[in-house]
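Students often ask why we bother encoding 3D structure as a string. The short answer is that it lets us treat folding as translation between two languages. Here is a chain of 253 residues written in the first language.
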Amino acid sequence: MIFPGFKELIGPPFWAVLRDRVVPAQKLRILRVLNIPKSFSMSDVEPWAQLRGSLEQLGLYGSSDNYGNPSIGLRRFPEAFCTLKNLEKLVLDWHFWIKAIPAGISNLKKLQFLGLCCCDLRSLPKELGALSQLDHLAVTNNITLGAAPDDVAFPPELKGMMSLRELYLNNCGLRRVPAFVRELSSLELIWLDKNRHLQIDAPLEDLVECYPRLHVVKTKKELGGTWNPQSLAHLEAFKAKLLAKNPSAEVEL
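And here it is in the second language, the structure alphabet:
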């Protein structure tokens, strides 16, 4: 079911129909809702736990005002979603009040795609490391994610995401490359751009030697940030080695 831009067309009855007729049938496989309306509340999603036997893809997108500021969305990550054990894709973008991912996320053993962009995450839970099938993780524009110490924001257990191919950490307030990144042997793409205060304080040779599939790396600074000389030297050396190993790689410094 796809309901694009229905904010002005469908009011509260939509959620009543979903709750009272669609969910009890327990046959819904895909649900994607754009522009969550103002009538939406956390209680609207609680019955969705009944879909644990059928739902495979779930996308709920908040919205923003005319200035790009988030104005509507979930107040927190619904615990009910952690019971949807057949879920393969979960996207909760533009929910500025979501500050944490619950530990119950580890129940979603089939999850391959997780997106929480434009939220207010302060850390990633260690339980993400239990998601061995996770292929794509996007937390773009969680601008305070890098404010906490590295081992708090990015616990070492995250290295358990051994199937992860795509990682989006752009505009997350990073000051350094999280340590767990160096343990992701399946990584093919990583975006670290728009992290104004990011500096590369150590060589990145291991990202070349350990990641035979790595072919897209974005570290470009914007928003007034600049590389210090040491960081720039590390990045230039990394780019040269990666291109020597994989001439078709895309590296944006």
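Translate back mentally: The CA atoms of residues 46 and 75 lie 13 Å apart. Keep this in mind for the problem set.
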